[in-house]
Design goal:
mainly alpha, 5 helices
Length: 146
């Protein structure tokens, strides 16, 4: 005896997100950010300037959710798929940031080695924001249905 799961029959609710597309988009976002830091990292991450570093963390808090929400709206991602979207956007960068962090002096020769801790903290902060944006946008829409 087989059991089947019933899904809504409307075409839009059955639309599946393209994991490959969002993983590729996550890779492109990571590549863009890495190239920007490679070229101008010495003026973006300044460990002795608390104002600049505070603005970097604040900028991330404001800008990263806009990227995630922009992709959600652009691709019309359903609330139940938004966590998967956030994971697909963030995981490529997390995996690729392992070697960039390990080989920090070679990847970012324009920055002091002392910046590597700030870089790591800023990465964790950013990925947490991306993932939490996916979770919160999913929960907010789901709670309105009830």
């Amino acid at each position: 005896m087989q059991s089947t799961t019933q899904f809504p029959t409307s075409e839009s609710s059955n639309k599946q997100i393209s994991y490959r597309f969002f993983i590729f988009l996550g890779f492109l976002i990571w590549l863009t950010a890495t190239v920007i830091l490679r070229l101008w990292g010495q003026v973006i991450l300044i460990p002795d300037n608390n104002l600049v570093m505070g603005l970097n963390f604040l900028w991330s808090l404001l800008f990263l959710p806009l990227i995630v929400y922009g992709v959600i709206r652009w691709q019309n991602v359903k609330p139940q798929q938004r966590i998967n979207l956030a994971l697909c956007l963030g995981i490529p960068g997390m995996l690729l940031d392992v070697p960039t962090t390990y080989f920090f002096p070679q990847v970012f020769p324009n920055m002091s080695v002392a910046v590597d801790r700030l870089y790591g903290g800023w990465l964790l902060w950013g990925y947490a924001i991306v993932f939490l944006t996916g979770v919160i946008s999913s929960l907010k829409r789901n709670s309105q249905k009830v």
